[in-house]
Design goal:
The chain is built from 15 helices and no strands. The protein is mostly helical and about 350 residues long. Helix 6 packs antiparallel against helix 7 and helix 14 runs antiparallel to helix 15. The chain is globular. The relative contact order is 0.19. The C terminus is likely disordered.
Amino acid sequence: MAKSLAIGAVGGALFELSGLPLAWMLGPMIANLLASSRGVDVAVPEPLRNVFLAVMGLVLGSQVTPQLAQRVLDWPLSAGLLLIGVAASTAVAAAWYRRCGFDPVSAWFGASPGAMTAMIMLGDKCGGDAQRIAVAQSLRIILVILFLPPLFWAFEGDAGAATSEHATLAHGWMLLTIPLLLPLGRWLRLPSAALLAPLIAAALLSGFDIASLTLPDWGMNLMLWVLGSAIGSRFKGMTRRLLGRYLWQSGVATLLALVVLALFAEMIHQLLGVGRDVALLALAPGGIGEMAILAVALDIDPVFVAFHHLLRMVTLMIVAPFWARWLLRRQPSSLSSNDK
């Protein structure tokens, strides 16, 4: 952990000095990714990651306001376009993975844009290659995080580089609820419980105008530093050659998915008047935690973004078991070791 955070601090400082966007997330993530590919033993313990993910949940939930209800009426249309876009982008990415030699189950579950842990476990249970699915899912998240901030930065200038608008801590007592909310989320069996339990609690407090957590710039950077290091250290033990091959495969799949989803984001922009950056981030094929981090850090309508990513994750978890059964019935040979 000490090595991972120290390497992340160096990466964050270099990105900050270079003036790159989202420096204290992208810097630690890339630095840890490079270190792990060189055999350095880096890791951020799950409990520590969950604590900072809970902080992110509180910050995100605090974006909910009583005025938000006026906008919720527009969301069914964008939700429908999201689900159609997810189906289309998954089909395109899965077709690419099939060309790369993936078996059908591994290709579809590796291409699914969300619910990473559930997709890995379910794909493995249905006879897919768990390692390929896990690497494809993990790299997809990292590549989306790498692609989007520079795009927003290029099109919006300094607007996308800001980390936080708040210089002081407000309603910091909400942080003391994390030790209660984490076990409560696990007990309720919420998906991504470390993020969603604090998010829901903060949304209720903020929605009723009781309290809203805001963090100073250094608090946001601290949170991004730990979470960025945690994402980058996932690839411990993977050789550079293997990582390079997987990066190529996942890079093409991620770009294909982004292009398809960008078309649906443009539809949302044209039909609802939602900003292009907001619509794209709401549909981007990243994990809910990572996309929530980007939305808050870049100040891109985090509640709209989180709602659509949560909807996508829940839908995938409901649909995936039925889709897996259909794949197995249609392609019984997909369990053959030769196809893997």
